[in-house]
Amino acid sequence: MTPQSDLFLGVIAAATFVMAVIQVGAVIFAARLSRRMQQMLTTLQDDVRPLLARASSVAEEASKTAALATVQAQKIDNLVTDLARRVEETSAVVQEAVVTPARETLAVFAGLKAGMAALRGLRDLRRPAGRVEEEDPLFIG
């Protein structure tokens, strides 16, 4: 072998050694990075689990609250419907107990008034025709 070939062989050996060192360093760096990523994921999972559990419980409470609100709205609807029915019934009772007798009483009074007017009319017919009243005794003119 020639001195040049020994030199090239030495350069090739040194380059191969440098590449091997770089590859070992890259594998170690990748292993450390992988370990750090695994730790970060574990920490993230530990932090997110309570949040997910809390969100789940909040959603469950919201569902219960919505169900209770629906039941209360139905109760209010039933109450308003019952109240409206009772108001109508009360109105009908008042109509029968108060308004109808009041109308009948007013009709009786109107009849009595008409009877009195008729009696006055008869009385006016009995007056003598010769008597003439003055138009307006206070009229000056």
Can you tell me about this structure?
- This protein has 141 residues and is mostly helical.
- It has a domain at 1-90.
- The chain has 1 helix and no strands.
- It has one helix spanning 3-126.
- The longest helix is centred in the middle third of the chain and has 124 residues, at 3-126.
- The N and C termini lie far apart (169 Å).
Q: Radius of gyration from the CA trace?
A: 56 Å
Q: List the uncertain runs.
A: none
Q: Overall mean pLDDT score?
A: 87
Number of helices: 1
- Share of β-strand residues: under 5%
**Could you state the order of secondary-structure elements as H and E?**
H
Shape, principal axes of CA atoms: rod-shaped
The helix fraction, in percent, is: over 70%
Main beta sheet: strand number and arrangement?
none
Structural class: mainly alpha
Intertermini distance: 169 Å
What's the total number of strands? 0
Write the layout of secondary structure elements.
Blueprint: H1 3-126
